[in-house]
Task: structure prediction
Amino acid sequence: MAEGKAAVLEIVKPGLSTTVQDLGRPGYYHLGIPLSGAMDRQALIAANLLVGNDKGDAALEAVFMGPEIRFLSDALVAVTGAELPPKVDGMEQPTWTSFPVKAGQVLSFGFLKSGARAYIAVAGGIDVPVVLGSRSTYTLGALGGHEGRALKAGDLLPTGPARPAPAGRSVPADLRRMPATPGVLRVLPGLYWHRITEAAGVRFFEDSWKVAPEADRIGYRFRGGRPLEFVPREQPFGAGSDPSNIVDSCYPYGSVQVPGGTEPIVLHRDAVSGGGYFMIGTVISADMDLIGQLQPHQTARFEAVDMAQALEARRQSGEQLKKLAEILT
Result:
């Protein structure tokens, strides 16, 4: 694709839930505005690098079902993340690989094979207005993205000027990170760990859990494990009557709250910033991308780690991204 050339995308069918996302808008969580951005940041970065974009440019995040997009201009495209087979005028294209789309052609998708969220990057990046430093969509606050909402049929999306980038570049298989089966989510215990009994803490990490249908950008709910047992105490003033209630506290990203002690909820990119449920711990940053690729009813378990292990996992994740950038730039 020639340098400086922009494209226009027409949304023919929006899919189940397709939004514009980049790497998010940090710095406003204390005001109740979440980070938002891609649920699977590494997949977004990979898609952008494949088409010659900066790693944080805006792309489309499609959940479970892909959109149908008519290209009004020539473009270079890449689809990463969930295995959601892209098709150009009905001809299947490889995932994790850049491919050209000509003006007038339609990009559509086959049935989902694995994962939950696919990332569709177009050379030049999706050029919607920047709001608080990001183009990401936060639908609860009607903020960012395209009119602050998921895409609809008839929407027109421009891209920025494209940089020269060849078609056919591919992400190596060892850098296509997806959840194992069952999924394993590493958790740093803490925060309110003292509120449960020692036996309950052991069972929490022993049990298998399943992703509940109530799993979205705000948080992923899990069910199927044994209920937690709480250390008896007199509830403090301001806390509710249930032993899982606390006086309101801040919620970090990845924190695991367990309302009623029965169904853990891992807070994700569009999470609220505080509330009155205790938190058993926090999913480490290196595993947050994996949560966004878990499907409802998929089995997962939690694994306890300490701070040194969490930091080492973060270092390894950073090394993967560095290697990806070296290969594709």
Remarks:
- The two ends are 16 Å apart (CA to CA).
- The helical segments are 41-50, 198-206, 288-291, 307-328.
